[in-house]
Specification:
One of its GO terms (cellular component) is plasma membrane. The chain is mainly α and 328 residues long. It folds into two domains: 61 residues; 263 residues, MetI-like fold (Orthogonal Bundle). The protein is 78% helix and 1% strand. The protein has eleven helices and two strands, in the order H-H-E-E-H-H-H-H-H-H-H-H-H. The protein has a two-stranded antiparallel ribbon with strand order 1-2. Helix 5 crosses helix 6. It is flat and about 95 Å long. The model has no long low-confidence stretch (mean pLDDT 86).
């Protein structure tokens, strides 16, 4: 075979491979576009179905559905106020307690812990994040709630219950079920999530940055405050939002310990409910259209709350990234 024919064969083979590569690129691009649009289509379909199914409740009760505390399947009178308030209160308690504890765990694992101890504690944190929520609920109902009522709740009531302004929040019988206990169980549930994310983002900080700060005489806290946190702020906020999203939508664990009462009390010790717990408790018993529509309306409200929270988190992340870009 002559040199020209060999060159022509090699050129033809190269052309076929290039054409095959372009076809694979087009197929890959088409597949990723379909996947991306599929997410939006599924999201849109969920919203449409929830709106259609919830419309009978909205049309019957109007804006009063959001402000009423009534929930009576016998008289077909429903309101979402107690469920909305319970969801927000328990999630606020959980995130307010979980963030500083998770920060301390992540700081210990990345900066203070001896090397031989980091791995077992890190694995334990990851294992806790994988435990099903119903396990936390059973533990909360049979172990934590009775212990909290017998040993902690009455002490809090005696010390804080008589204080002005915040006293009514801690008054009531020590029954162990209510918004506070539900918030504490949620705290225990979301700590592994937030701590694991914080630990991972703290680990990506270049060692040279921290060593430079230590060389200038900075303490560990100053290194965390002025080097690690600014470098990882986006990841830290993302981890907190993941924990908050789980706290807002948690169902089984909260259902076990929240008390499941459609009432609003000033005290965190009194039984209450959340949107997720109400749906879990009553959906199988909802045989009438108003009852079922009211529960689906609660689901739509939870969807909107979660969407708004995550949208605000995304906006906050964009502001942080923009601020870091301006500093750079």
């Amino acid at each position: 075979m002559s040199a020209n024919s060999l060159f022509a064969s090699a050129a033809a083979l190269r052309a076929r491979r290039l054409a095959q590569g372009r076809r694979m690129d087009r197929l890959f691009r088409l597949a990723t576009v379909l996947f991306a649009w599929g997410v939006l289509l599924v999201l849109g379909a969920i919203i449409v179905v929830l709106l259609v199914q919830a419309w009978p409740a909205f049309s019957r009760f109007g804006f009063g559905f959001f402000t009423s505390t009534a929930w009576n399947p016998v008289t077909e009178n429903y309101g979402a106020a107690s469920s909305i308030l319970g969801t927000l209160v328990t999630a606020f308690i959980a995130i307010a307690l979980a963030v500083p504890i998770s920060f301390g765990i992540a700081l210990f694992l990345t900066e203070l812990s001896p090397r031989w101890l980091r791995r077992p504690i890190g694995i334990a944190v990851e294992l806790l994040a994988g435990i099903p929520s119903i396990i936390y609920g059973i533990w909360g109902l049979f172990i934590f709630a009775p212990w909290f009522a017998d040993n902690v709740q009455w002490r809090i009531s005696d010390t804080l219950g008589n204080l002005p302004a915040i006293g009514p929040l801690f008054q009531g019988p020590p029954i162990g079920l209510g918004w506070l206990v539900a918030g504490l169980v949620l705290t225990i549930m979301i700590i592994p999530f937030i701590a694991a994310v914080m630990r991972d983002v703290f680990d990506v900080v270049p060692t040279t940055l921290k060593e430079s700060a230590y060389a200038m005489g900075s303490t560990r806290w100053e290194v965390m405050r002025h080097i690690v946190l600014p470098y990882t702020s986006v990841g830290v906020i993302g981890g907190i939002m993941l924990g908050l999203g789980r706290a807002l939508g948690e169902t089984m664990a909260v259902t076990f310990v929240v008390g499941n009462a459609h009432d609003i009390h000033a005290s965190l010790f009194m039984p209450g409910n959340t949107i997720a717990s109400t749906i879990a408790n009553e959906f199988t018993e909802a045989t009438t259209v108003p009852h079922r529509s009211a529960l689906i309306a609660l689901g739509l409200i939870l969807f909107i709350i979660t969407f708004v929270v995550l949208a605000l988190a995304k906006f906050l992340l964009l502001q942080v990234e923009r601020g870091q870009g301006q500093k750079a």
